[in-house]
Amino acid sequence: MKTQTTLSKGEPDGGASGPIMRVRGLGHSYGEREVLKGLDFEVGRGELMCVVGPSGVGKTTLLECLTGLRRPSEGEVLFDGERIEAPPRGLAIVFQDYSRSLMPWLSVLDNVVLPLRSAGVARDERERTAREALAEVGLSDFTGHYPWQLSGGMQQRVAIARALAYRPAVVVMDEPFASVDAQTRADLEDLLLRVREHLGITVLLVTHDIDEAVYLSDRVLALGGKPAGIRSLLTVDLPAPREQVATKSLPRFAELRSQVYRLIRDV
Question: What one-character DSSP code corresponds to residue 228?
Fold first, then answer.
């Protein structure tokens, strides 16, 4: 039976109506090299959106602009109605390189507690919240282990739990499953779908994997061109709940996969 937790559903203070993120006229340049140009889109509350595009198109630059890690050269990003100038409260980030984001000298529990301590959360509350987040990703029995004692997939679960412990409204993920084997990747994809459904969070995920984008998404945002713009914002009308074999065997899955592939290939 699935462990039930009391983690608060991700929702910022601004209310539950309207998109949680709005991107308006977003562009970014590195010196004279223009990378992104004229991006306009919205991310709905509770939506799971994947961002795809050819290598070097500017996916990570877009992620950095969306999270406040980088100030765009033009345009703006609004989070719950407020312009992002720095990483906002209510938004968490999961990076690809989990091995570098976890502290090897800290236990699994202490790694998850770490950002809560920095945020000034009381000791009893932060440990309870961290344990709930670890239960959410199936690691209740590993709180005393160290990252180096865990598999790559389990380490990434710790990184996800740390993001969830912050009780975000939005989780932004940069190629989070790229460094694990195919079976572990499939397991982590399904974990993400379960967590998103259970906690009601919004997920924005950058990926190079077309199958992953179609399998996970409500919509796929495809970038292309130089400078990069939005080639398409494709609705994924696959039935829920999704399942690795059954969903990927559907003719509609193959159709959507081909559409996304053509969008990426025809740059």
Answer: B
* pTM confidence score: 0.87
Q: What is the 3-state secondary structure (H, E, C) of 134-168?
A: HHHCCCHHHCCCCHHHCCHHHHHHHHHHHHHHCCC
- From 148, 160, 161, 136, select the one nearest 105 (Cα to Cα): 148
Strand segments (E) across the chain: 21-30, 33-43, 48-52, 74-79, 82-83, 91-94, 170-174, 202-206, 219-224, 229-235
CA gap 266, 222 in Å, rounded = 11
The tokens 């990069």 sit on which residue?
A: 228
**Contact status, residue 256 vs residue 219, Cβ threshold 8 Å:** no
Per-residue pLDDT tens over the stretch 193-226: 998 998 899 999 999 999 999 999 999 999 999 9
Chain position carrying tokens 């074999």 = 245
Radius of gyration over every alpha carbon of the chain, rounded to an integer in angstroms: 18
Assign 179 to helix, strand or coil: coil
Q: Token digits for 50?
A: 């994947």
Q: Please write the tens of the pLDDT for every residue from 84-131.
A: 999 888 898 888 776 677 899 999 999 999 888 877 788 888 889 899
Domains and CATH numbers, the chain: 19-90+172-179+203-267 (3.40.50.300)
- Cβ atoms of 5 and 135 within 8 Å: the answer is yes
Measured distance CA(258)–CA(76) in Å, rounded: 32
Q: Are 167 and 56 in contact (CB under 8 A)?
A: no
Mean pLDDT of the chain: 88
Residue with tokens 């959410």: 136
